[in-house]
Amino acid sequence: MPYDESVPPTRRRRSLLAATALVAVCLTAAGCGAGDVGGGTRAEPRQGGGGTSAPPPSKSAPAPEKTSASPTPSAKTSNPSKPTGGGATGPLSGKTVVIDPGHNPNNHLHTGEINRQVDIGTTHKECDTTGTSTNSGYAEAQFTLDVSHRLRALLQQQGAKVVLTYDDDRAYGPCVDERARIGNEARADAVVSVHADGSAVGNRGFHVILPASVRGGKADTSKIVEPSRDLGTRIAGFFVRDTGSAPSNYVGGNSGLDTRKDLGGLNLSTVPKVFIECGNMRDPKDAALLTSSGWRQKAAQGIADGISSYLNG
Prior knowledge:
By secondary structure, this protein is an alpha/beta fold. The chain has helices at residues 9-30, 111-114, 140-157, 176-185, 225-243, 264-267, 284-290, 293-312; strands spanning 84-85, 96-101, 117-119, 124-126, 161-164, 190-197, 207-211, 215-216, 219-220, 257-260, 273-280. Strands 1-5-2-6-11-7-10 form a seven-stranded mixed β-sheet, with helices on both faces. The protein has a two-stranded antiparallel sheet with strand order 3-4. A two-stranded antiparallel sheet has the order 8-9. The longest helix has 22 residues, at 9-30. It is globular and about 40 Å long.
């Protein structure tokens, strides 16, 4: 359902304090800022937001290994806003979650369409971008869809209805304004846009992007800023715990959180929504994680646990 203004703010603030404490505990346990996990410099926005554009993935690039941990993707559907799952009982029964896999691997074949300007409330930006890739050619769009499928399976096991904005069923896009609209029309209890960054070598780690307070044109985030921060803080904490990854060493001051007002997918949302940049595809150490099916399952678990904590909080 959409964010309900009648929910007492005190409850959310207590939840946020608890979530913040969880992040601190998880970061301490993971030794954040040290070791093998870090981040990268901010790139051009992808889903109406972050990430550098990259050439199409190399055909010679090895496909990431498959394991039994990877859920079997569902059949393609021409209606991405139609909820799937939710029939089973569980802690998330009655909740609707929208997952937004960033980009589309065929965007580079439709440059005219994805370069078309769309209204993001405060300004106009490209419909979408190509996203980035590892140096070996593993595309961000492949990564985001894989993690999204895993995440969908985990949420459905808890009884949630799950909507994907895109499920390998379009020639390009969807545009960033449509991605936001799908979440709004689904009356989602939570929306998470899955991404991976494209930054400099040595920039490592994940970060969760939160909506800033924005009001202008079609954009008004005043009702979703606080619940989105609660959602994002919980996801960051559980992502550390479940993946062992540390927060970005280049965005967010080691907090794993970054607030932005230039992303159409956040500006146009009327329901709680965050982005997560799971790592830097251009750093060899981060790329080794992102191309590991076992790590991608952990990433999906961390996001799912954060969503579940938020919705049950």
